[in-house]
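From the thread on structure requests for the teaching lab: each student submitted one protein with a one-line request. Submission from student K.M.:

"Model Erythromycin esterase family protein from Thalassotalea mangrovi, tokens only."
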Amino acid sequence: MKLTKLFTTILFIITICASASWGLFYVSEYVSGKEYVEYLQNNKESKTLSEPFEFDLIKGDISRHSLILVGEIHGFHAPTEFDVEFFTHLRKHFNVETYLLEMDFSQAYFMNKYNQTGDETILERVLQNWVVGIGQDNSSYKKRWQKLQNLYQTGATFQYLGNDKLRDIALLYAHINELDEQLLYGVDTEKSEKELLQFALEAINNRLAMDISESLSRQLTHIKRNIEHKIEDTHREEVLTTNLLDLYELYGLFDKQVYGFYGLGHTLLNPIAEGHNPMASRLTEHDTWFSDNTLAINMVFVDSDMTVRSNTLPSFIQDEGTYSKLSVSYDSLLTYYAYGIMDLKQTTSRGTKTLFKLNNTDSPYQRSQRLFNAFKLLPMGQTITAREDSVTTDYGQYLLFIRDSDWAIP
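Reply posted by the TA:
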């Protein structure tokens, strides 16, 4: 009896101390965030999730930049709608005709075929081996591609380009056959992936040694490099970067405006403390042209639901079926807390999407790491933390803050 009473007393004291500590922490966040809240109030455009942005806040920066990147977190519904909304705006008001995909070169080739024909079997085939696994068989993602195809069919044509690591050998072969139907003649399609890659590489080398058109030569040379990356298992961020540099040369993109929609891990403009050096950061390191001309919009979520494959989760949080709906919020002390997230919540309402400009002349984010400094109490998942020598605006000029997004609907 005495032990039970002692245990209850200790548990009560621990609870009180924990509550007090958390309370003090939140008070500290509110006090330290005052300057940021004042700034954010004057540098935002906020809409309900169902309303379209005017994009008045960002239009000046769009005009001043050639490469416009959006970094999503895969598995949420709201980003699939924002992508269509933003690219439609860029296509109609800024004549952006190039859309960079988180797909390989051949997958993007057939996505263009889908835009031209509307053939849903092409779309389904491309998505079979898409690197964004959660989007392979997902209603939200599929409707996104269909809406973009509808945009294309209205006369607002554009071209997809893919710079990701080679994912689909069968589509690679189909792509090569459309470029040169004799090139892969006689191949045994029952061979292993490695043998198929080697056969294609040798066939391309033989064709490049012949007298062929400059256009075909440049296309095959790009494909050859990607086969080599696949064989050598080159780091994915390096492939994304070198491929994009190749595509800029191949398609003459330096004098055009280009849009790209990727996972957040590829669009950060600076390396993070955890050691990851994203594609966008590598581009800015490669050439000052990219550091001067790249605009990055990154995303943060609170009170939202994410689609996750059930077999990747502990059994006690799995839903029935292939996919589970996982609650995600970057204001959780247990799983992910981004310092400064309360500033965003103070300046927005539930059920909204808000675009914040972080780099205005009077921005406190230009001298701090707020929003890019995080912690968690539970050892699960990843955090994104600024390097010691960096500030928030080194990672992107805009933030899209989404509250109450539904999951990407399976």
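TA comment: The longest strand covers residues 294-302. Residues 241 and 249 are 13 Å apart (CA to CA).
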